[in-house]
Amino acid sequence: MTSYVLTLLLVIPFVGFIATWAGGTTQVRAKWIALLFSCGQLALLTLILVSFWSPLDGLLGSRIVAQVPGGTSAPFSYYERSDWVPQLGMNYILGVDGLSTPLMWLTPLLTTLAIVFHWDEEQRPREFFALLLFLEMSLTGVFMALDFFLFFVFWELVLIPMFFLIGIWGGPNRRYAALKFLVYTHVASVIMLLGIFSLYFISHPYNALVYGVDSNTFDMTVWLEAARRHAVNPAVQYLPLVSQAPIFLAFLFGFVVKLPSFPFHTWLPDAHVEAPTGGSVLLAGVLLKMGGYGIFRVDLGMFPDAAKDLWWVMAILGTVSMIYAAFVCLAQTDLKRLIAYSSVGHMGFVTLGASTLTVLGVEGGIFQLFNHGLITAVLFMLAGSVKHSTKRTEIPRLQGLAKVMPTFSIVLMVGFFASLGLPGLNSFWSEFLVFLGTYSAASFAPMRAIVIIPMISIVVTAAYYIYTMQRILFGDVTPELEKSHDLMPWEKLSYAVLVILIFAVGLLPFIFLGMIDVFTRTGLPWLFGGA
Fold first, then answer.
1. 141-158 core/surface letters (b: 16 or more CB in 10 A; e: else)
2. Which of 105, 238, 330, 523 stands 20 to 30 A from 225 (CA)?
3. What is the DSSP letter of 95?
4. How far apart (Å, rounded) are the C-alpha atoms in residues 120 and 125?
5. What is the DSSP string of 215-250?
């Protein structure tokens, strides 16, 4: 039975975008229409998440490994393929696996919580909630698209709603921040596009190898399957290193700017400080994950020889990002800017994990994408809550909030402790696996002690979080803060969901680690020595 469940995942938020824009004539209608469609998307993706462990063939179609043209097995749980513009090598190809499923599920989860968090949004609510759904659709498309042309379309579509969310609903410097975000990420996309066209013009022999069709193609599965065959049997011809290396670097540049890594990170703090809370939640919680997803799907999945030769580039980017961001956070006086820089550091774990080229390191890096999405959503919501209550986010002007905002204070401590990697909370496992993978990596063997350098970031991270808690939560309440209110009921609902997930994933990490392990075994077989 042919299943169109993946297409439905694009249709639901897009129809919701149109319905909210057209029918959300009042604030109440706009938020309820948006919430309905986002919940529908979340429910469907929850079924897909559950079906990864308990197949629901009768409801969602076959979850068995998909068969693509030419009889090739594609390691995707759900897979759709049809001709689009075959004359130009474009196909409509969607697929989900252990890499994309957690990130796809995170997308409607955070979108739904962002809608709930903005339940009292009064500034142009119809457009605001509609853009959130359009962003949800675009992000979902990025994580599902398996045709490079389709992938690039969704990659660029993400910029449009985020640009307007920052530029219209942002802070005083919103126009500057929105333009800087657009320019940085679009320039990086152009460099990535050069890599896409390079693959297109040299793809015909590999298309013939995989599917028996000697023509140029944008089909990502051609490269994934050809790389897999080469990993299993080195006698199978594949792209030489001299071709892989420049294309690998072109894609890596596009991905690390989106991630972002030092020194391409400067757009992120400005965007976060000016963005509305819902925009920051999706920007840090999901949009940044596009870069990490691309590294694992494209750079490691399609260019294994280049990854083995240029691992040190990713290692340097990851390590420098972690150390730099940790020390910069110590000097921050604005809560949103501190959280933004902490995201730069935590995304360094992703790049460092990818550079290890070990099963533990790579799976830890992928797991960090998901864990950081949950934690950063909590942290930026907290920044939004304190600004809504106190009208400020400057850390020196906030003190004694534990007395006037006790619920906020408890959630803040959970978010900070999760972000610094406290055992029992979700990010502990991903950070632990990255460090374990780094220490055990063959490439790091001559200098294992170098793992101490990125580990310093953990100590500094604990320092700036504890220092920030001491300044914000304790001490005497200033007269300006005495009338501050605690979390609103709809805010408590959003926090409750995220805090429960942070503890649940921390105590039961195998639910998502098992999915990620399936991806690494089928999508990156060379990590296992070609087995």
1. bbbbbbbbbbbbebbebb
2. 105
3. E
4. 9
5. S---BHHHHHHHHHHHHH-TTS----HHHHHHHHHH
338 closest CA partner among 404, 419, 282, 264: 419
Q: What is the largest CA-CA distance in the chain?
A: 75
Per-residue pLDDT of 330-373, as tens digits, reads: 989 899 999 999 999 999 999 999 999 999 999 999 999 999 99
CB 185 within 8 A of CB 258: yes
User: CA nearest 190: which of 127, 113, 251, 268?
Assistant: 251
Q: For residue 520, what are the domain limits?
A: 5-528
What confidence tens digit (pLDDT) does each residue in 150-204 have? Answer: 999 999 999 999 999 999 998 888 999 999 999 999 999 999 999 999 999 998 8
What is the number of structural domains in the chain?
1
The pLDDT tens digits for 290-327 are 999 999 999 999 999 999 999 999 999 999 999 999 99
| Cα–Cα distance for residue pair 178/102, rounded to 1 Å | 28
Could you tell me the two tokens for 42?
Answer: 């979340």
Whole-model pTM?
0.93
pLDDT of residue 365: 95
Distance CA 17, CA 234 (A): 48
Query: By three-state DSSP, how is residue 300 classified?
Result: helix
Residue 393 · residue 386 · CB < 8 Å = yes
Label the pairing between strands 90-96 and 72-74: unpaired
Residue identified by tokens 């639901």 is 12
